[in-house]
Amino acid sequence: MIPKDCKRLAEVDFPIAVVSKHSAAEKEARCGHVPKVHIWPAARPTSACRAMLMALLLPDPCATLCPADFKQKARELLCRFPGKLGATDEELRKALLKFIGDFANWDLSSDAQYLKAARGLVKAAHPEETPLVVDPFAGGGSIPLEALRLGCEAFASDLNPVACLVMKAVLEDIPGHGLKLVDALRSVGTQVKKASQKELAKLYPPDPDGAQPITYLWARALRCESPNCGAEIPLVRSFWLVKKANRRRALRYSVERPRGKPPFVKLEIFEPKSDQHVPVGTVTGAKATCPCCNTVLPASRVCAQLAAQRGGADVVFDLNGHRAGGATILAVVTLKENATGRQYRLPTDRDYAAVHAAQQAAVKLPKGAMPDEPLPPVGTLGFRVQRYGMLQWGDLFTARQKVALAAFVQEIAALGECADARRLTALCLSKMVDMNNSLATWQAHAEIPAHMLTRFAIPMKWDFAEAVPISESSGTLDSAIKRTTEAFPNLVTTRHGDTVHLADACSCGLPDDSAGVWFTDPPYYDAVPYSDLSDFFFVWIKRTLPNHPLLRDPFDPKNPLTPKLREAVQDEVKLVSGRPKDRAFFEDTMGKAFAEGRRVLMDDGVGCVVFAHKTTEGWEALLSGMIRGGWVITGSWPIATEMGSRLRARDSAALATSVHLVCRPRPGDAPVGDWGDVLRELPKRVGDWMERLQAEGIRGADLVFACIGPALEIFSRYARVETAEGDAVELPRFLEKVWEVVGRTALEQILGTAEAKARNGAAGAVEEDARLTALFLWTLQSTAVAQASSLQDEQEEDADEEDEEDAG
Question: What pLDDT digit, counting tens, does each position of 743-766 carry?
Answer without folding.
Answer: 888 777 766 655 655 554 444 444
